[in-house]
Structure formats: C-alpha cells, structure tokens
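A quick aside before the break. I want you to see a complete sequence-to-structure record at least once, exactly as it would be stored in a machine-readable document. Don't worry about memorizing anything.
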Amino acid sequence: MLWPRAVRDVVKTGPEREIVDAYPYRNACPTSVWSRLIDSAEKEITFAGYTNYFLWQEQSRLADRLKTKTSAGCAVRFLIGDPDSDVTRRREVVEGVPLTVGTRIRITLDALERMGAVEGLEARFSDEHIALSVFSFDDEMLVTPHLSSLLGHESPMLHLRRLGDDGLYDRFAGHVTALWESGRPAAVSGS
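That is the input. The structure line, written in tokens, reads:
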C-alpha cells in the first residue's frame, strides 16, 4: 500500500494533470516560455489580458512574429479592456500608478495599429475579464487570476496544457470564447 500512495503523491492523476507549471508571479514565468508558446502556435493565439501591454515590452519583434503567424494561417486575437470604460477608470483608482490601465491599453492599440491591415489579426473590447488574463496558444495557455489591488505582473500564473475534454484548459478557453463572442470590435487596422 505504500507504493501506490507514493506514486499518487508524485504522479498527477486528476484535473491537475493539465498544470504544466505554476508561478507565484506572472513575471516569474521566463520570457523564453512565452516565446516558445508564441512561436510554436500554428492554429490560434489569443491574448486575453486586460491591457496586454507587457507583451510589447518583453517579446522582441512581436509584431513581426505575429505577422509571420497570420501569414501561415494562424489566427491571432487580442481581447482587451476598453480604455474609456468605467471599469477601466475604477481599476486605475485601485492601482493608483502613474502608468494607468487606460494608457497601457492604448499602447497595445497603438502597437496593433502600427501593424497595419493584417489578415487573421482581430481585436475586441471586453471589460468582463478585468480580474483574469488568459493567453492561449493552440493547446497550451497561461492563466493569471488577478489578486485584489495588485498589478498583473504581481499576480500568480498557471501554465496549462489541454489533455482532455472539460478540464482546466477547456474551462478557461470556454470563458474566453464567451467573452470574445460578446466583445465589441476594437478600431484597429487588422480587425
């Protein structure tokens, strides 16, 4: 009876099997993990962070890499907060930092606009994901549940890999799909 318990303590057997890694802070996840996920995705990439601002700072040549992805048939979607919404303004008060939420969203909108018209690139507004960021890359994703008044990079993050139906991956993916479908088009050239 000792061996089965020892094996169960080491080998993932339940829903946690889809957890590849966990980080106490989003910025504890190596940029190389982000790069690998972006560069290896073939079908779909979704950036459903409220601002997605940090991507442009941490991923070199992101616009060029995303254009390469879309030209190869990979759909790239950005789900971002509305920089002028009441939700965004309330979050700015909570965070109380000089680089406001609205400004960070506008940096993403500007970066998307600078990419020009790109077939396969879409952006939509949604204020319903203010407390949860989900970044998906085919069958892998990075999920950040935002903690109270902390900034996104200070919140924990899970790296998930889809292994079956209705697991952790599918639960988060379904949430993002619903938000995407109810989102409003963002005014950028590629959308």
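Two observations worth writing down. The chain is about 40% helix and 20% strand. The two ends are 58 Å apart (CA to CA). We'll return to this after the break.
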